[in-house]
């Protein structure tokens, strides 16, 4: 999922370059030459999905429950960010 426009700007305001990982070297070891490949951590990606759906589009996130993803995503971290930043969003 590529983020553009207001969603990307919202994520940058909250995170800056935190929770981003450069995967270029890993992909090169697997034989994929890319100029640069930056990926968000799982938690930042889930936060982005929640932010896009709830804050920007005012709709529920379809088929996403914390219990579905908590084994791979630190959902408590995401809830902490929501709590910390809730006063920053109009």
UniProtKB/TrEMBL annotation:
Protein name per UniProt: Uncharacterized protein
């Amino acid at each position: 999922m590529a983020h553009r426009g207001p969603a990307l700007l919202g994520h940058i305001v909250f995170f800056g370059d935190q929770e981003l990982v450069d995967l270029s070297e890993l992909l090169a070891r697997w034989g994929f030459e890319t100029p640069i490949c930056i990926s968000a951590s799982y938690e930042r990606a889930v936060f982005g999905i929640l932010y896009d759906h709830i804050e920007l589009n005012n709709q529920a996130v379809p088929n996403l429950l914390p219990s579905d993803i908590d084994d791979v995503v630190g959902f408590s971290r995401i809830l902490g960010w929501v709590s910390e930043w809730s006063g920053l969003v109009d």
